[in-house]
Design a protein that fits this description.
The chain has 142 residues and is of the alpha+beta class. It is built from five helices and four strands; from the N terminus they run E-E-E-H-E-H-H-H-H. The protein has helices at 33-49, 87-95, 107-115, 120-132, 136-141; strands at residues 2-9, 16-21, 26-31, 77-84.
């Protein structure tokens, strides 16, 4: 996906660049243009990652964006640029978040694991992967 984004350089000492994404009604900021582009990409990707493909809004043409109507128009010099986002990357990133699960162990087994400094979570993950027939190469790309 590629969306037009309005960048507004505030001219402050930190190099703050305000970011407006009109098609999504989202905003963020960065420090310097490189960081502002990365923040725009992250904002778009995170916002759209949970959306069904049919609910993702179409991007406006870059020529239809009027910087004078930006919410930050009075904050500095504004310009429009396109920012591309790999929505599938953000969907994979969100799905790879860790979740908390409670497990039940006999007390003696938990004590032995603690004394041996065994990471029980890692052992459970390894056991689940083995049981489900999931290879390490698959988990790296999941």
């Amino acid at each position: 996906m590629t969306y037009p984004v309005i960048f507004t350089e505030t001219g402050d000492e930190r190099g703050t660049v305000l970011v407006s994404i009109p098609d999504l009604r989202q905003a963020t900021e960065g420090f310097g243009i490189d960081d502002a582009i990365a923040m725009a990409r992250d904002c778009i990707g995170t916002y759209l990652a949970d959306e069904d493909d049919s609910e993702i809004p179409d991007a406006s043409s870059i020529s239809s964006i009027d910087v004078s109507k930006s919410e930050f128009a009075d904050a500095g010099r504004s310009f429009v640029s396109l920012v591309d986002v790999d929505i599938d990357f953000f969907r994979r990133k969100l799905k790879s978040r860790s979740v908390r699960r409670n497990i039940t162990l006999p007390e003696w087994l938990d004590e032995m694991a603690t004394k041996a400094k065994i990471n029980v979570s890692a052992v459970v993950q390894d056991a689940l992967k083995k049981t489900l027939g999931i290879s390490e190469s698959r988990t790296a790309s999941a």
